[in-house]
């Protein structure tokens, strides 16, 4: 999509390098002269934000690994050593711990934008699938990293989640034993998780390179969902996109800093400041907040195996999304019915996250039934999770395929430039001034 390269080496050294290793040409074509749709809004800045998050996680993770001890008897103490004795260890650890949450906040917004504007539709199916692979690797990395402090919630969370693999017939017990390194969650498990937690971010970086490569092959989507047809539809990446990305990244880093310096433990769990004790189980075992919707789906299904399949199926739907949506119109700007169902889907995801944080048998309406029609057995978080889970899968497997065939979309612009250049912000000030101001 970027067309013929316009890179021109300026000196003998850059000309010599360009004929042997064209790094300068690659940077120029990818981040300077790369044509981007002229109507991109700030929802398109989260790709750059995610790149910054990944860099922060890798750098802080390398520093933490220098001081961490992957031993069941010393892991908790080594984390406390980092916090108390290592120079700026508290800062590095809080940046890494809160950086995981910031990473997931950014990736969820990035995915929501892709869903709303149809960024998964042809010819961007591979681009979307690579993004889903990154998300899956992020979840695995975050889970293993959460175990490393070896606190109460870390240990018992690892026991609960790894035991789920045993639900698979024939191979389940074998996989669980290999993951544990024995017959229970113990030091071999911690060493495996530490090794994989250190490795997976570099795998994420590799898939990110493929993701960016695929993006530069098919080009960026845009709010209208219309492909660029001429130079009037695009602008160079620098300075237009880089300035917008830089501003958004600055705001995001301010939010990041607020959590790191003023409420570093707000997104964590207090039980993780208690050393792991296999003989004492926390009253309520919950994963990190970014796993809560899938945890609610898992608990919503009474059967263990079906619950595990539903949890993984919720992620699998994202991989199949390019073929589940049958509409020929990309952007939901021009699909009013799809927009309504999408907003309901977002609310359902929030409900699932809220349900995942609650005890399943606790009453939703308290001990007082405000509606006579609600039966006491239905007045629980697990039943609310079941209704929300039903809509989650219905949205992907029923609503999107059917709606794409039955919905009548609004007229879509012929080009990107037509609505962008007709926007009041693009009209020169002299043209919009009052008659008496024009002389």
Automatic annotation (TrEMBL):
One of its GO terms (biological process) is respiratory electron transport chain. GO terms for cellular component: respiratory chain complex III. It is found in: Membrane. Its cofactor is heme b; heme. Heme b b562 binds at residues 96, 197. Residues 13-224 form the Cytochrome b/b6 N-terminal region profile domain. GO terms for molecular function: metal ion binding; oxidoreductase activity; quinol-cytochrome-c reductase activity. It is a multi-pass membrane protein. Component of the ubiquinol-cytochrome c reductase complex (complex III or cytochrome b-c1 complex), which is a respiratory chain that generates an electrochemical potential coupled to ATP synthesis. Belongs to the cytochrome b family. This is Cytochrome b. It comes from Caulobacter mirabilis.
């Amino acid at each position: 999509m970027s067309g013929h390269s316009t890179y021109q080496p300026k000196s003998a050294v850059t000309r010599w390098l360009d004929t042997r290793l064209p790094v300068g040409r690659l940077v120029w074509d990818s981040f300077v002269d790369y044509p981007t749709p002229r109507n991109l809004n700030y929802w398109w800045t989260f790709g750059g934000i995610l790149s910054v998050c990944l860099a922060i996680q890798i750098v802080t993770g390398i520093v933490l690994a220098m001081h961490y001890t992957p031993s069941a008897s010393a892991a908790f103490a080594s984390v406390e050593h980092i916090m108390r004795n290592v120079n700026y260890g508290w800062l590095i650890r809080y940046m890494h711990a809160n950086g995981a949450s910031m990473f997931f906040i950014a990736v969820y917004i990035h995915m929501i934008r892709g869903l709303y504007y149809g960024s998964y539709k042809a010819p961007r199916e591979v681009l979307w699938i690579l993004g889903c692979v990154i998300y899956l690797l992020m979840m695995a990395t975050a889970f293993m990293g959460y175990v490393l402090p070896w606190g109460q919630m870390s240990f018992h969370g690892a026991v609960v989640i790894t035991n789920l693999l045993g639900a698979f017939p024939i191979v389940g017990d074998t996989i669980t034993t290999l993951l544990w390194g024995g017959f229970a969650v113990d030091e071999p498990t911690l060493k495996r998780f530490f090794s994989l937690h250190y490795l997976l971010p570099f795998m994420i970086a590799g898939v990110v390179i493929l993701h960016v490569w695929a993006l530069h092959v098919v080009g960026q989507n845009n709010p209208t969902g219309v492909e660029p047809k001429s130079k009037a539809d695009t602008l160079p990446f620098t300075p237009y996109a880089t300035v917008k990305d830089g501003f958004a990244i600055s705001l995001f880093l301010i939010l990041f800093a607020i959590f790191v310096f003023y409420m570093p433990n707000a997104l964590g769990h207090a039980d993780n400041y208690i050393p792991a004790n296999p003989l004492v189980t926390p009253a309520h075992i919950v994963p990190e907040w970014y796993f809560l919707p899938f945890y609610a789906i898992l608990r919503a299904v009474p059967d263990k195996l079906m619950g595990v399949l539903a949890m993984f199926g919720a992620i699998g739907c994202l991989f199949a999304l390019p073929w589940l949506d049958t509409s020929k119109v990309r952007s939901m700007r021009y699909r009013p019915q799809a927009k309504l169902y999408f907003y309901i889907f977002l609310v359902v995801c929030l409900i699932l996250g809220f349900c995942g944080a609650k005890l399943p048998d606790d009453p939703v309406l308290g001990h007082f039934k405000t509606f006579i029609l609600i039966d006491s057995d239905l007045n629980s978080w697990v039943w609310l999770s079941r209704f929300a889970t039903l809509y989650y899968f219905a949205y992907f497997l029923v609503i999107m395929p059917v709606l794409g065939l039955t919905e009548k979309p609004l007229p879509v612009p012929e080009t990107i430039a037509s609505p962008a250049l007709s926007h009041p912000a693009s009209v020169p000030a002299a043209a919009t001034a009052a008659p008496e101001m024009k002389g």
